[in-house]
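Recall from the previous lesson that a structure prediction takes nothing but the amino acid sequence as input. Here we apply that procedure to Aromatic amino acid aminotransferase apoenzyme from Sulfitobacter pontiacus. The sequence below is the only information supplied.
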Amino acid sequence: MFETLQAQPADKILALMQMYKDDPRETKIDLGVGVYKDATGLTPVMRAVKAAEHQLWEAQTSKAYTGLAGDPAFGDAMVQMVLGDAVPRAQVAAAATPGGTGAIRQAFELIQMARPQARVFVSNPTWPNHLSILKYLGMEMVPYRYFDDETRGVDFDGMIADLKTAQKGDVVLLHGCCHNPTGANLNAAEWDAVIKVLQDTGATPMIDIAYQGFGDGLDADAAATRKVAAAVPECLIAASCSKNFGIYRERTGILMALSADTSAQKLNQGTLAFLNRQNFSFPPDHGARIVTTILNDDALRSDWMAELEDIRNTMLGLRSQLAGELQRLSGSDRFGFLAEHRGMFSRLGTSSDMVDKLREDHGIYMVGDSRMNIAGLNAETVPILAKAIIEVGI
Ligand code: PMP
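The prediction returns the following tokens.
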């Protein structure tokens, strides 16, 4: 029966990783895959994660199933971390999922269950997996303008104009912070304007927050999500713990569904548990338990936050070093956007030919749309990248 299957397109980033591996040049630089790497190229297990695992290993007496929505303590800790006191806890349904991707998938299914005809507005560009899952589920997508090729910032007027065409029953997918793949983000006033459009149109926001703590700080990065959540009657939030806790392979994420009252919350909570049951039954627990242990222990939490701040500041340092180096070499400010962008990624905003040239001539690997993982750099490789960017004529 399986002869009817059609080959699926290879994941471009994974193919790029292989090319990088096969490249014998010692000077090669990997700015491809989206994991944080320290100056030595390692993706470390964070100190607090190790300590929490140790505690769990000693204290855990059973690995029997948790609830269908995961451990309630994980839900509480994550709702607090993402939403703070922006909305009453009793109006938030939450279910643990396998990673942020799992949360996004469950969110789309929830939307489809509630409104089979819903259109999902997606930024152009967005994380390719958003598009791929929506396509796989047969859901209608409407791209909205987002990245300005000229300024490498947000095409705010275009975005607002496009979002105004959304209607009640549509969903607007927004990146809570650290937009992937561009690195370009809305400022506070621009978020206010987006909220106004959501209120005027009645469209439902869905926020993907996968990099809380990687941009301007743990609370600062959640500020927009909190504002949106407090301003609209219903909202979906898909949060990932992969990056900020460095537990990528543990598959730890959560889907939150906010509603205007507690009876809707009960319905949502039951539906989230049902959806988990249909897709994978009980969500993974190990990563969720690590996160809960850290967030609920003062010492572990402050150590985790300190390490997260180091990671964030390392990336900010690399950004300003790169922007500075490019300013020196080009004699212009045209690369200043690199210091303005936030999170792990920046879209350089150049052609795929230039991306190929950087790879072929200089052993610098970035995604074809010119997305660079800033964490793939270190103080020594920044000048090499800057020189290569100028040499190929970007
Ligand atoms: N959303 C965005 C925008 C992402 O970049 C990622 C990770 N690449 C995710 C969600 C989900 O990550 P994970 O499933 O690994 O938690």
